[in-house]
Automatic annotation (TrEMBL):
Location(s), subcellular: Cell membrane
Entry protein name: COBRA C-terminal domain-containing protein
Entry-linked InterPro entries: COB_C, COBRA_pln
Pfam family of the protein (one): COB_C
Keyword Transferase included in the entry's annotation: no
Length: 362
């Protein structure tokens, strides 16, 4: 999400970037020895960022210019790819053997990525513009970067609250679910700091880092809360309302994604206001699904405030062999927001089913 990805590496020798299309290096570096033609970047360890939408046509490249924002493959395959092109040469002679760059780094909001070494793969075959001739790349390689929630933060970044139609009790997020250290920097709705932030939306921030969080003071101190409400229980179906609330006054979540694990998701009948895609980590089990916003409607979760929430309802057909409202069965097993696992309340705090409830209906 915004401000987007940053890709960095260290050149094996004294390579320089002469020109770029579809992206740009964040620093030019020391190019003083070049008098006539000035390179794009002379940094030994360059960092590259995506161009913003609307970049001039002569700077664009296929799948570029999204401002560094990438969707998940399931949401939008075309938006899940970023590409750019560089013209690279040595600062001295250019007829030396090309060597693999080292120390790749993929940076983004929250960081948390670790990259392995570059590995050579069969050289890419490139078609000419008229598609009548094939040219082969001098060398091709792959680098795999893996995301870890624990590297990104010591604490969770979201939590889950629960409620039902059959019990007035609301199970709130656990206290300090996302760490109590945020307590010193949280603000109330009447805070002068909040009013200043609202009057100055164009806050200065580093090109790589996200703005420092400005959280609304809550018991859980989480930037995001997911609320799961069991709304209705019909004869053959049951209905759940899902709401996602943003408590960060300085962060919009672009093209957010919510992944839920629940055994009855294999019987999803209809989803209102959200898109839904079933995930199949195991072919025999279909208990995990991804919810995400409708494009240009609610795929942007706004910063904290009156518009800082999105919500939908899910209608599921009952599995007669397993469905029950008892013992918390109807609540999710795991919830992930933008890839990070959210903290669930302890099971003994779930809203309980009254003893007088109709057993046949459950």
């Amino acid at each position: 999400m915004s401000p987007g990805w940053t890709l960095g590496w260290t050149w094996a020798k004294k390579e320089i970037i002469w020109a770029m299309m579809g992206a740009q290096a964040t620093e030019q570096g020391d190019c003083a020895k070049f008098k006539l033609k000035i390179p794009h970047s002379c940094k030994r360890s360059p960092q590259v960022v995506d161009l913003l939408p609307g970049a001039s046509f002569n700077m664009q490249y296929t799948n570029c210019c999204k401002g560094g924002v990438l969707t998940s493959w399931g949401q939008d395959p075309s938006g899940a790819i970023a590409a750019f092109q560089m013209g690279v040469g040595l600062s001295g002679r250019t007829n030396k053997t090309v060597k693999l760059p080292q120390d790749f780094k993929l940076l983004g909001p929250g960081a948390g990525y670790s990259c392995g070494p570059a590995k050579r793969v069969p050289s890419t075959v490139i078609l000419t513009d008229d598609r009548r001739r094939k040219a082969q790349a001098l060398m091709s390689w792959n680098v795999t970067c893996t995301y870890s929630q624990f590297l990104a933060s010591k604490n969770p970044s979201c939590c889950v609250s629960l409620s039902t139609f059959y019990n007035d009790q609301v199970t709130a997020c656990p206290t300090c679910a996302c760490g109590c250290q945020n307590n010193a920097t949280c603000v109330t709705k009447e805070s002068k700091i909040l009013k200043e932030a609202e009057n100055n939306k164009t806050m200065k921030s580093d090109i790589i880092m996200t703005p420092k969080p400005l959280l609304q003071c809550t018991r859980h101190l989480c930037p995001v809360r997911v609320h799961w409400h069991i709304k209705d229980n019909y004869k053959d179906y049951w209905r759940v309302k899902i709401a996602i609330i943003n408590f960060n006054y300085r962060m919009n979540y672009t093209q957010w994604g919510l992944v839920v694990q629940h055994p009855n998701l294999n019987n999803v009948t209809q989803v209102y206001s959200f898109e839904y895609m079933a995930l199949l980590p195991y072919q025999a089990i279909n208990d995990t699904g991804m919810f995400y916003g409708l494009k240009y409607y609610n795929d942007l979760l706004m910063e904290a405030g009156a518009k800082g929430n999105v919500q939908s309802e899910v209608l599921m057909k009952k599995d007669k062999n397993t469905f029950t409202l008892k013992q918390g069965w109807a609540f999710p097993r795991r919830v992930y927001f933008n890839g990070d696992e959210c903290m669930l309340p302890p099971p003994d705090s779930y809203p309980f089913l009254p003893n007088s409830a109709d057993r046949a209906g459950s």
